[in-house]
Design a protein that fits this description.
The chain contains 21 helices and no strands. With 343 residues, the chain is an all-alpha fold. Helix 17 packs parallel to helix 19.
Length: 343
């Protein structure tokens, strides 16, 4: 990726009168730089170059080192003392171990291209204060590590204040930061739209599921959100039932429309379960259709045909652990399933 500074420097190499020439030459210059980056990314780290030596001395494994240099190939030519060491030293001053630093940097190498004093220092300070410990910073999901490279005054700060104004406690905001850091790194106006979307559904911000609903909403645009709503409607769910699913298990909305359709159709086709029972147990919507839903429905069908059960169990049976389901519905009737090809 070509930085804005590099792009600007290139243009200043040519006189202002050569505007058309610059525009014509620009694509060739960019493609040449990109090709150079690709070639660098393919190179294996050398044992003797200063950058590789420094990383290895600071606990980076060969895999982590290769990942960093593949993502940021121009780090091979970086000045270790001026560009890399100050960032690593800053992490150590905060109490990070070598293994923790290697884990963070290999997950988000762009940190090494961030100003240590203007961005990295204030970002580390804030995250440590919010999360409470260094170990919690390490466990942040990858989108959360991008906080270390951004301007938190334009994203995290205003987003936290906005959520507080909507009734969320700091404890729940920190929980959101842990499970879905990307929700708080988006532009404030985008976060506001997602909050207003949930408010339009009369979703209570004091609900334990609210932060999960916000997380799911922030992962999709309005078009996909409407597609999922329409998928439920097409399958026979009313708007009030869809809202109940959202309130009980927002993660169900993270399931693709195709998977939602397959699961609902498979369950309802048995004629043993209804839309109402699915609304009461929306968690099955993120179960595997091929590895869990269909095999278990087949087992129950065989038991009924063999007159070994008079009535199908309640829908939560599809969420049993494999061991529990096997012990209750397969092991006691082993001979019946042998002929059916079940283990």
């Amino acid at each position: 990726m070509i930085s804005a500074q590099l792009r600007k420097s290139f243009f200043y190499l040519l006189p202002k009168e050569a505007a058309s020439y610059r525009r014509a030459l620009c694509p060739y210059f960019f493609s040449a730089v990109a090709a150079s980056d690709n070639q660098l990314a393919k190179r294996k780290p050398q044992n003797s170059d200063p950058v590789s030596v420094f990383f290895r001395e600071n606990g980076f494994s060969d895999t982590q080192l290769e990942r960093v240099l593949k993502r940021m190939p121009r780090l091979r030519f970086a000045n270790v003392e001026k560009s890399i060491k100050p960032k690593i030293s800053l992490f150590k001053e905060f109490g990070f171990s070598d293994s923790q630093i290697a884990k963070i940097i290999s997950a988000e190498p762009s940190i090494l291209c961030t100003s240590a004093s203007r961005k990295l220092l204030p970002s580390l300070s804030l995250l440590q204060n919010l999360l409470g410990s260094i170990s919690d910073v390490v466990t942040l999901r990858k989108p959360g590590l991008r906080y270390l490279t951004g301007d938190l005054s334009k994203t995290l700060y205003p987003n936290i204040e906005f959520l507080k104004s909507r009734g969320l406690s700091m404890q729940r905001i920190i929980c959101l930061l842990r499970i879905a850091p990307g929700s708080l790194s988006m532009k404030p106006e985008s976060l506001r739209k997602h909050v207003e979307k949930l408010e339009a559904f009369a979703f209570d911000s004091s609900s334990k599921m609210y932060i999960y609903a916000l997380w799911v909403s922030s992962c999709m645009d309005d078009r996909m959100w409407e597609i999922k709503l329409q998928t439920f409607r097409n399958l026979g769910f009313t708007d009030s039932e869809i809202l109940e699913i959202l309130r009980k298990a927002p993660q169900a909305f993270a399931t693709s429309p195709e998977k939602i359709e397959k699961i609902v159709e498979a369950v309802l086709s048995t004629k043993r379960y209804t839309v109402k029972s699915m609304v009461s147990n929306p968690q099955i919507l993120w179960c595997s259709i091929e590895k869990r839903i269909k095999p278990r429905l087949k087992v129950l069908e065989i038991l009924e045909e063999s007159k070994l059960i008079k009535k199908w169990p309640a829908l939560p049976v599809l969420r049993y652990t494999d061991q529990r389901f096997h012990e209750k519905f397969v092991a006691p009737y082993g001979s019946v399933f042998t002929d059916q090809g079940f283990p």
